[in-house]
């Protein structure tokens, strides 16, 4: 089974069990994937987290039932996982802009988030520049933070981390340590712990002694797919991630090896339309 079919199978599983308590571990198992890579692929392709998708879908179905049935609000709240009518009303209003009682009376508009169907674009309308390289393990020096992967918290925390290290001069200090083959600052995702937490590093390839206040890690030897990213940050990077997963992987005989992933930011004006950065993904052959 290909990864596209696996992802759709996981979505179908979520829909079939939408009224039940679902863990991301259960859902990822349906996709035959690690929790981290399922969450990451899902977020890249859909622009929302697994938890957000479930919440949107449940509140969409709840709105349909409020409009079309005479079930009690409290019963619908419990059905879709809310312990109290107050919690349900707050979440409902956040999504739809009206209260459950207003929805029952058909006062106002509702937002419908429809069931997902994964559609992969294999046309390759926009050319992708990439290369495959073999690289031995290497040392990276920098700073690290642990992030929860619950409800996409890592997606919000990582940009905040970059903002802080850029403002306090840490990123400049890391850049001065760079003396390896990879030219630039590295954003490294690694050490995924059962889908619960991950480590994120802002680092540089370096064989220098580790200065006080910094840490070192060994990036494992890998076959890397290296994809060029053209354009200003932060908009350019997510577009290429989506293109990799929606076009490149389905039409190639590689899959993600599941070890460290990297974004490489060379020196230069990252907000310029001419800026060139890279995405490094560890690869292995498909089974």
From TrEMBL:
Query: InterPro entries from the entry?
Result: AraC_E-bd (IPR010499), Cass2 (IPR029441), Homeodomain-like_sf (IPR009057), HTH_AraC (IPR018060), HTH_AraC-typ_CS (IPR018062), MarA-like (IPR050959), Reg_factor_effector_dom_sf (IPR011256), Tscrpt_reg_AraC-type_HTH (IPR020449)
Q: Does the keyword DNA-binding apply?
A: yes
Instruction: Name the UniProt key words of this record, in alphabetical order.
Output: DNA-binding, Transcription, Transcription regulation
Q: Which residues form the HTH araC/xylS-type domain?
A: 8-106
* Superkingdom, natural source: Bacteria
Task: Write one Pfam family the protein is assigned to.
Answer: HTH_18
Q: Which SUPFAM superfamilies match?
A: Homeodomain-like, Probable bacterial effector-binding domain
The signal peptide, as residue positions, is: none
Name by which UniProt lists this protein: Effector binding domain-containing protein
Specify the species: Metaplanococcus flavidus
């Amino acid at each position: 089974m290909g990864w596209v079919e696996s992802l759709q199978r996981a979505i179908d599983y979520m829909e079939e069990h939408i009224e039940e308590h679902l863990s991301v571990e259960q859902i990822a198992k349906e996709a035959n994937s690690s929790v981290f890579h399922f969450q990451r692929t899902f977020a890249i392709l859909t622009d929302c987290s697994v938890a957000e998708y479930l919440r949107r879908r449940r509140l969409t179905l709840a709105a349909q039932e409020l409009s079309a049935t005479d079930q009690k609000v409290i019963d619908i709240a419990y059905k879709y996982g809310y312990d109290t009518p107050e919690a349900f009303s707050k979440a409902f209003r956040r999504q739809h802009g009206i209260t459950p009682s207003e929805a029952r009376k058909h006062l106002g508009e509702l937002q419908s988030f429809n069931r997902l169907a994964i559609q992969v674009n294999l046309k390759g309308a926009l050319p992708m520049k990439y290369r495959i390289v073999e690289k031995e393990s290497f040392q990276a020096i920098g700073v690290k933070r642990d992030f929860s992967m619950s409800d996409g918290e890592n997606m919000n925390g990582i940009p905040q981390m970059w903002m802080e290290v850029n403002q306090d001069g840490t990123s400049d200090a890391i850049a001065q340590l760079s003396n390896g083959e990879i030219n630039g600052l590295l954003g490294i995702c690694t050490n995924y712990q059962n889908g619960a937490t991950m480590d994120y590093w802002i680092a540089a390839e370096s064989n220098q002694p580790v200065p006080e206040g910094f840490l070192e890690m060994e990036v494992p030897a890998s076959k890397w797919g290296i994809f060029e990213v053209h354009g200003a940050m932060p908009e350019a990077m997510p577009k290429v991630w989506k293109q990799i997963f929606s076009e490149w992987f389905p039409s190639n005989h590689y899959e993600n090896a599941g070890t460290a992933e990297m974004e490489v930011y060379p020196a230069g004006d990252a907000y310029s339309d001419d800026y060139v950065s890279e995405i490094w993904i560890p690869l292995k052959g498909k089974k």
